[in-house]
Amino acid sequence: METVYIETTIPSAYFERRPQPKIVARKEWTREWWDGHRHRYDLVTGFPVIEELSRGNHPDKNEKLDLIRELEIFPDDKAITEIVQVYLDRYVMPRDPVADALHLALASYHKADILLTWNCDHLANANKAGHIRRVNTILGLHVPMITTPLELLGKGPDE
For residue 121, what pLDDT is reported? Predict the structure, then answer.
């Protein structure tokens, strides 16, 4: 069974409340994947997801945390800090927020097959895939497939 690292945008999208059509569509695709397809995978997450969802006061905060409560949490390791620094030094991920680099480092270091996210600027971005692959290869790291719930559903954006 493939391992899927659940990044912060997934529980956030599951409980999204904003009415814009694009955001509603992401919520529906996220729920369709989570409710109907997640059982096909071993789901994991990381400490940055817990930290990000725990910060501040936002709608459905407890529900978002409950959604991922049963998931295995990839442990932090000194190597993660070193990998993050390489990602920042080589401009693979932005310095702010550093959590994007942490998600990628955790998924890569712990050999997750898939990093599931709606962060299409810094993670699920075809323009970054080659750079991520090159740097991870230099570091001797696994290269997870970085994708969205929509892509795992096998649908196009018009379906």
Answer: 87
- Domain 3-151, second-level architecture: 3-Layer(aba) Sandwich (3.40)
Q: What is the pLDDT of residues 40-75, one digit of tens each?
A: 999 999 999 999 999 999 999 999 999 999 999 998
Neighbour tally for 29: CB within 10 Å = 21
Q: What is the mean pLDDT of the chain?
A: 94
Q: Domain residue spans in the chain?
A: 3-151
